[in-house]
Amino acid sequence: MPLYLSRFSYTPETWARLIGHPEDRTKAGQSYIESVGGKLHGFWYAFGRHDGYCLWEAPDNVSMAAVALAISGGGALSSFETTVLLTVEETLDALRKAESVQYRPPGA
Length: 108
Known about the structure:
By secondary structure, this protein is an alpha+beta fold. The protein contains 4 helices and 4 strands.
């Protein structure tokens, strides 16, 4: 199954609610991805541009998009970005296929 890395930031209101009622959100994230047949590999908070990161496994892009849309639509986050992660083998396959793509730069 494909892996996905999500970066998120909470709204100030969400942080205020969590300060008032601290809660481990790992179980929530786990239930969201499991509802589409996936798995949560990790959930971390961070300093910096994003408040947290999740590493997920999902059956396909549509399933991961469904989870991302549900979370984004919940109103607790100010940002939510997901990146599809490629294995080294997938990247090597892409590199081999790239040779057959007849790219033409703009204006060339």
